[in-house]
Amino acid sequence: MRHASGIITADPDPDAAASAAHPPLRAHRISKEYLGGSFKALDDVSFELNNNEITAFVGPSGCGKTTMLRIIAGLEYPTHGRLEVFGNPVVGPGPDRGMIFQAYTSFPWLSALQNVEYGMKFTGVSPQERRERALNFLKLVHLEKFAGSYPRSMSGGMKQRVALARTLAQNPKVLLMDEPFGALDAQVRWEMQELMIELIEREKKTVVAITHDIEEAICIADRIIFFTRQPGRIKADIPVEFKGGKRYPRKEELIKLPGYADLEHRLFAMMREEIKASSET
Amino acid sequence: MLQYRHLPAEHEPDCGGHDAAPGKAPVFVPPSKRFLELREQPSSNRSLILGAVGVISFFGLWELGHYLTAVSGRKFVPSVEQVAAALYTLFADHNFLRDVAVSCRRIFISFLAAAAIGVPIGILMGCFGNVRALLNPTLSGWRYLPATSFIPLLLVWFGPTEQAKIALLFIGVIFFLIALILDNTMAVPKEFVEASLTMGASRREVVTGVVVPAAMPAIFDSMRNMIAVGWTYLVIAEIVGAQDGIGAVMMRAGRFLNVDVIMACILMIGVLGLLTDAIFRAASRLLFPWNIERRS
Asked: In whole angstroms, what is the distance from residue A5 CA to residue A7 CA?
């Protein structure tokens, strides 16, 4: 771990933080190898995220999109490459990159309010301000009535809303979401997508969200990065142009836009290609 | 289909409309329930009654055993009331309360020591792979050594003293306790740890603020189970050169073939065991209100 972080920290740019020219996140030639290089989860992946843009990582299972997200979060280290948040090299997990997991991570021993307050302990927020901010964010995810409730008595969607509030309350520079709605049923999932779009519009966040659901990707994303399988590479980097720079929390409005079906078709075709390729090897 | 019965009235399918007869739809009569019904939770009243039936049957069988024994041998199979009388005499005439207190004290001290050492070690092993790799092979080996095999050694070291007894109870409990707590700690979802790391928590904060509170109810359960093991070792600890304690009373009774006294002591240990269990359960409910299962 130590030597791996050494590789990433090599050659840090001293003026990086001061410069506003840096993108929120820059991944430069990231590779991740396992088993001494015989298995490549990621192979020479480079991209930059744009400010206040929602990017979706899409691809078949095992394409390395989760590995990429975990490397961005600092929970794993790349074998090669360099990763920067606003020019600062990433050396491990930190509150500048908030992460929402597919598994429920609301702490069961804390009430919803305490859960949302929890993260702010580490970002130097005073206890009084923590309480105010936490209540505010609970309100934003429509859980103000459940401030005192424990996660045990909550539904999956409510638990994920607590997690969303907790992460946003920390005011991260980049919000990472690892299939955050993957465990929810279709209707709750749909509600959560709408809520997420509204929240991101309001909080002005740079977001990376993983999904293997093509419809979800088109619905939430301003840009879609499609990963291939084994080795994980970027197959396509697609700006979602048909939305015309707007976001549509209401799915029924989005679906009838010209261009929606074309994009969906294109992504399904790519997914088919990847599945076919992997079944032939 | 059974759950139809629990639906509130407004959920009943509406059959009005086309050709249905006016008024309410017929009441659905579910099949009657059998004793061995799958997915059935007895009501608390029913549980109480069933539990009482079990206890009464046990004492009934015991009583039956007494009267089925030939009169010449009945001294060795005393009846329930004889054992109860023996227990009463023990308390009334032989200051049995003191022996009970001495035994409880031994259990308490040895278990406190085992928990004070075992819980932190188990948690550290559960959190850090290197600590686990360092300690696990040695500790696993210790688990296979019967605690009773240490009796001669403890007698040589400590003589028939209080330390020897407490040490035996300690050895009997600690290695299993560590193994259980290691498992409890490792069962904490790794996403909890990762979520707190991405929020900026330090290692110390992850251990004390996330892993420990997450694992605590399970650790408490493990302690409850292991103190039961402590009670099972008690008699062995007190058989060897003890003047007081429940085990010593039993041994003395054995020498005079007072089976009723022996059985009274066994009964007493059972009651004390149940009591400790109840105390642990109640404490767990008080300490971890967030962990109480709610029936939906």
From this structure: 5
The string of pLDDT tens digits covering residues A41-65 is 898 999 999 999 999 999 988 888 9
ipTM above 0.85, yes or no: yes
Chain B residue with CA closest to A122: the answer is B200
State yes or no: pLDDT of A249 exceeds 70: yes
The string over B150-180, giving b where at least 16 C-beta atoms fall within 10 Å of a residue's C-beta and e elsewhere, is: bbeebeeeeeeeeebbbbbbbbbbbbbbbbb
Closest by CA to A209, choosing from A228, A225, A195, is A225
Which residue in the set A107, A153, A166 is minimally distant from B210, CB to CB? A107
Nearest 5°: the CA angle B225, B181, B189 is: 120
**Facing residue for B192 by CB, picked from A107, A111, A167:** A107
- CA-based nearest residue to B110, from B221, B254, B211, B245: B245
Structure letter (DSSP) for residue A148 = T
Q: Is A97 on the interface with B (CB under 8 A)?
A: yes
Tokens of A248: 């549509």
A153/B contact by beta carbon, under 8 A: yes
- What's the Cα-to-Cα distance from B115 to each of A168, B148, B279, rounded to whole Å? 40, 20, 16
Nearest chain A alpha carbon to B205: A122
Is-contact B201 A99, C-beta < 8 A? no
Between CA A14 and CA A88 the distance in angstroms is 9
Please state the φ and ψ torsions of residue A235, each to the nearest 5 degrees.
Answer: -85, -40
Q: Token pair for residue A21?
A: 């020219």
Integer Cα distance of A159 and A150 in angstroms: 9
Q: State the pLDDT confidence band at B296, using cuts at 50, 70 and 90.
A: very low
pLDDT in tens, B167-177: 999 999 999 99
How far is the CA of B264 from the CAs of A239, B67, B233, in angstroms? 82, 18, 18
Q: Would you call A182 an interface residue with chain B, using a CB distance cutoff of 8 Å?
A: no
Q: Mean pLDDT over residues B181-199, rounded?
A: 96
Q: Confidence class of residue A38 from pLDDT cuts 50, 70 and 90?
A: confident
